[in-house]
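Fold it.
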Amino acid sequence: MGKRLAALGTGVGALLMIVGATGPAHAVSYPFYTDCETPGVLGNGWFSDWTPRHVDMILKVNDDAADGHHVAIRFVSQDNAYNLKFWKWHHLYDGKGTTKSWTLSADDSTGHMNGVGIQVAVMEGDEQIANCRNMV
C-alpha cells in the first residue's frame, strides 16, 4: 500500500472527537490544532486519530484579500529525520471573504508520519505568491 490522501467529504466540521489509546502503535488521545497566516490567507488544521501510519484531519482556508489571486491549503507530514512531505493542494477560488474546508485522512505505509502540519499559500495559477507553514 503506497501513500495516499483520501477525501472523506467536505464541509465545515466541529472539533473532532478523539478515541485513542496510549503507546506508539495507537492513535493519540487528544486533538492537535495549528494555524498559519500570511497576508491574504489564513489556514487552520485539526488533526485526530494520529499514528505514524494514519491521521484524520479537517483543513480550512480563508481568502482575506481582494487581490485577484486564489488561496490554497495542504497537509504536510514529517518523518523522524525531519524530512517533509508536501501533500496535495486544496484550492479556494471564490474570492475575498470566502472560506472552504475539507475533511480528509492521510495514510503513509512507511509508518514514519511523526509530525503533521499545514501549508497555506496565495496562488497565481500553480505558483505560490506568498506562503507559510506550521507544524504541530
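Residues 7 and 104 are 5 Å apart (CA to CA).
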